[in-house]
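Table S2 (continued). Query chain:
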Amino acid sequence: MFLLLLFLNLKFAAITIIQSRSLVIDLMVYLLLIVTFNYSNWTSKSLTKTAVVIGIYTLINFSSYKLNVLMPLLIIQSVSGITFKKYLSINFIITGLTLLLMFIINGEGQIMYGFSFLIDRKIRMSFGFGHPNSAALYYYCFIVNGLLLLYFSRFKKHINLYLLLIMPLWLYIYQKTGSRSFLLSLVALYGGYLYYFLGQAFKKKYSFKAVNYTYILLPFLFTAITVYFSIEREKYIIINRLLSKRLNYYDIFLHKLSFMDFFFGSKAYKDLVVDSSFIHLLFEGGIFFFIGFCIFYVISSINMVNKKEWIPICVIISFMAYGLMETVLLFSMLIGTNIFWITLYYYYRNGKMKL
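Corresponding output:
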């Protein structure tokens, strides 16, 4: 498992940092996915049937982007063969060492100029990751990985201290990268934690109900909001500008969709930059995949709520918030983003993926 996560990380480095694909690394990733696949979860008959159905579904209206949908599913099956804490530990070590190495080699990286909602032009730093948004996302994954690792340890009572100590780090990263998605996700993380912390402190149990139901329905709400604002973007000029005019691209993409795209996934992503996880979740694999994801999410979320697992809930909310402006949820070669899928899977199995 260590080798799989390591080579996924190298794949990310090759594409994002070096900006060149490596056939050797790609082949190693696929080989390790086959070797580490948890075959004990399947009978030969069920595995064959599932492979045939997925194969046919993938070939219908085929596009390379459809493979992004399969990657999280394969990684889930590989990781399910080890404990959740071991997965988090391996992930944390690889991510932490990568960040340390990148900072030693590149420092704050290249200066990049960009536009802001409040000022015309700003300086952004890439930290050697090719783009400031990629650097911010990598640091974000490291932060939430550390939070979950602490939560599932005997030191969970020190979570308040952890959240306090990492504030200078993420404020520094935001200041240098200028990533609004990064900032939004951390505001969601801290805001969610503060809400549950105060609710428990003042014993306002009933105040959780409305928020819990909202949390369970987030995929539907965020997808509906994204599609609505995209179609009606001319009425929401300020929001569109705040989102760096992403709504323009979403609207163009939505108007390119065909009947087959809606049901079986779209090929239109190759022509447009669509920085929304929810547009990707809805149209990379088509409506059938999206329905399957929603069922998976809802079952996992209900189990989280029933177990009162507030920290994992806050992490998932934070990932969902990040997904509003970035394609993080299906960006599986960045090993940190798989925390979203593995955490959901852990609760989907109701804790049967042992700690």
